C-alpha cells in the first residue's frame, strides 16, 4: 500500500489562469478516487493561503488547501 503525504494539483479556470492546490494527507482518501485529469469540477470547500513556499508550480500569489 502506498503512503501519500499530499496530492499536489495545478487548477486552471476558463480564462486560463492557474493556481496551485494541495489536498492534505488527512483528506486524500476522501478525494483520491474523485479527481481525474482533464475533467471539470466545481470546488466549494477550501482555504486560500499565500503561495510563499520554496516550491511554486504557478506564479499565482495564493494557493488552495483542501
Sequence-ordered SSE layout with sheet pairings:
Layout: E1 6-12, E2 18-24, H1 28-31, E3 47-50, E4 62-65
Outline of this structure?
By secondary structure, the chain is mainly β. It has one helix spanning 28-31, and strands spanning 6-12, 18-24, 47-50, 62-65. It contains one helix and four strands, in the order E-E-H-E-E.
List keywords for this structure.
66 residues; mainly beta; four-stranded mixed β-sheet; 1 helix; globular
Instruction: Output the radius of gyration.
Output: 12 Å
Q: How much helix is in the residues?
A: under 10%
Q: Strand order across the biggest sheet?
A: 1-2-4-3
Q: Tell me the distance between the termini.
A: 23 Å
Overall 3D form:
globular
> How would you sum up the major sheet?
4 strands, mixed
Total E-strand runs: 4
Description:
There is one protein chain. This protein has 66 residues and is mainly β. It has one domain (6-65). It is 6% helix and 33% strand. It is built from one helix and four strands; from the N terminus they run E-E-H-E-E. The chain has a four-stranded mixed sheet, with no helix packed on it. The chain starts with 5 loop residues before the first strand and ends with a strand.
